[in-house]
Amino acid sequence: MTEFACSYEGMRGASLTILLVDDRAMRAYHKMYFGKSCSTDVISFPFLEMVRETGYYLGDIVVSAQRAKAVSKRIKRTTQSELILYVLHGLLHLLGYQDGTSEKRAVMFRKQNQLLEKWRDVRS
After folding, report:
1. At what angle do helices 102-123 and 79-94 cross, to 10 degrees?
2. Which candidate, 26, 90, 33, places its Cα nearest to that of 64?
3. Among 85, 112, 120, 124, which is least packed, fewest CB within 10 Å?
4. What are the pLDDT digits (tens) for 65-94?
5. Is the domain covering 2-123 a CATH 3.40.390.30 domain?
């Protein structure tokens, strides 16, 4: 998915790091970097300056596999599908998309849904 999305967004050959953690570790990352004492599904750490210089490394994505498993069970989706969604969301943050306002969130979610749909089309 990440290779497809990067290529689609004009970042062919870009690389990134994905770290799968449990909720306890995610809570620690969230507290350390954002000052929030709760867990979350995904956190992105972009290296956009490096991208402009090298064109290769986008940054790091930290994903709560524990959260993905719990949510997927609740909404009757596979854990793999939920993880893909979290990684894609994190990747879009690395590519500069934001979700801090309702307008930006709408743009980001449209792109997220568009990429998921295109990726599923390519895979079928």
Report:
1. 120
2. 26
3. 124
4. 999 999 999 999 999 999 999 999 999 999
5. yes
